[in-house]
């Protein structure tokens, strides 16, 4: 029965991740469909570009929350069987986060055409490794303020997190055993791959010198 609950929580995380916050904010407050403007993405960056910083930052915050919500919920429920599984005591928190990211990128509510996975991935990392999330913010701001390219800053963060989680498997962790660290690295690799693929057109524009600065 526990695995049924885990499956339902993963579904819940996917459905929450599927909520297109930028699209909703644009339609409610500006009567604008952001899918018809800018990069046509429903993510926070296009929300900022189309609706402005004030509305975009709310979209960003909500997208981050989507990645962390079910992870936090499960911890608050204080039932370890919902996040520690198998004879190897694997902590599956990152899988809940992955479900939210998949929902964000392939949202069921808007024909599976969503954002680029960055903010929701950051929310998952915030929930499982808060200090790493703070480091990501520093990396993002450093690259962004230097270049003004969100795509480049997002990619730098994805690479940095991937390197961290790779190194992390070789060291003891107070909360996550070796099996969990291996699983988390696998999840992070999937998320980084999604981010790279979703930014493919941005990389092309960067090479051509036509990428828009924010």
TrEMBL record:
It catalyses: an acyl phosphate + sn-glycerol 3-phosphate = a 1-acyl-sn-glycero-3-phosphate + phosphate. It is found in: Cell membrane. It holds the Pfam family G3P_acyltransf. Pathway: Lipid metabolism; phospholipid metabolism. GO terms for molecular function: acyl-phosphate glycerol-3-phosphate acyltransferase activity. InterPro entries: G3P_acylTferase_PlsY. SMART domains: G3P_acyltransf (SM01207). The chain crosses the membrane at residues 6-29, 50-76, 88-110, 122-143, 149-171, 178-197. One of its GO terms (biological process) is phospholipid biosynthetic process. Belongs to the PlsY family. Catalyzes the transfer of an acyl group from acyl-phosphate (acyl-PO(4)) to glycerol-3-phosphate (G3P) to form lysophosphatidic acid (LPA). This enzyme utilizes acyl-phosphate as fatty acyl donor, but not acyl-CoA or acyl-ACP. HAMAP family: PlsY. Probably interacts with PlsX. This is Glycerol-3-phosphate acyltransferase.
